[in-house]
# Entry
Amino acid sequence: MAAWLRLIAIVELLPGVLDSQLRRDAGLSHFEYFVLAMLSESEGRTLRMTALAHRTNSTLARLSHVVRRLEDRGLVERFPCPEDARATNARLTAAGWDAVVAAAPGHVANVRGNVLDGLSAEQVRQLTEIGDALLARLDPKGRMTALYRPEDS
Amino acid sequence: MAAWLRLIAIVELLPGVLDSQLRRDAGLSHFEYFVLAMLSESEGRTLRMTALAHRTNSTLARLSHVVRRLEDRGLVERFPCPEDARATNARLTAAGWDAVVAAAPGHVANVRGNVLDGLSAEQVRQLTEIGDALLARLDPKGRMTALYRPEDS
DNA sequence: ACGGAATGGTTGTAGCGTCAAGTTTTTGGT
DNA sequence: ACCAAAAACTTGACGCTACAACCATTCCGT
# Structure
């Protein structure tokens, strides 16, 4: 019960902390930043929509809306996938890359300052294992396994 | 980094799991349920809006909207606080009590099944301490301390 | 090789949360 | 005693997310 109440509080408070720093300093929501960051780390800065949805723990519908808005802002571009005519690729533009590079340091500092620095090295290790155990239940199909366990996928 | 990615994934996935079960089985969002639950545990099933906002880790603005909707549905009623004319009290109605009682068992089962049962007793203990450490940073003013550390405040 | 099911994606809508602004009452400094 | 600042909400507008419906393409069993 004690653990559960704390977990709820974290889930309720963390998004606000991340969003407001990024919104203020970079004009991006945390989810938008995360989408751009996942693209920036991919081959050719390009991913199929479904793959991107998995890496961002999101729905295709949600992602579709967000990518459209990012495209309107010139940070991302979409083009049909040559290999599968059903699929769409999303690629980071030069402006999108610049936006991630500009936003990253402040975001990392925020995460360290507000989250990780409060934990001992041992607790970080414990949290990693707890995270694995929880995600095994929350994401039973292992859809976004690629993110938190990059060796599979 | 591994711990951080897992924490993000949890924060992204957990609300959906909680909301969809409660929405489906009880017609309530998790936040609405939590508001009703906090009232149900309070003296006279009544709390001032500010106190309720702290216990639910939320903003007064957010809470005000939610309580208005709950009031429209007859689950809660609002009345001015006699001691402080600025303040508003929210009280659970009989229908609201019934709604919490009806929703609780399914919700508890869901939480156990999807979250806590995946952890060992030792991990639950670790999570409690990690939660304390994180909340000390996320909620530096200890606004909603009352929730996760009921002995103070 | 054909037809139904599954996959991949988009869009409209409705509901919820955030932000900024406003009102009223209380507190505190002088 | 007075006035400014703070506290306690409420409200309206706007943006984002979930849900459901939809279309196109590919897969697969027979």
The beta strands of chain A are 46-48, 76-80, 88-92. Residues 16, 19-20, 48-50, 60-61, 63-65, 68, 81, 84, 86-88 of chain A lie near DNA strand C (CB under 10 Å from a C1'). The mean pLDDT of chain A is 92.
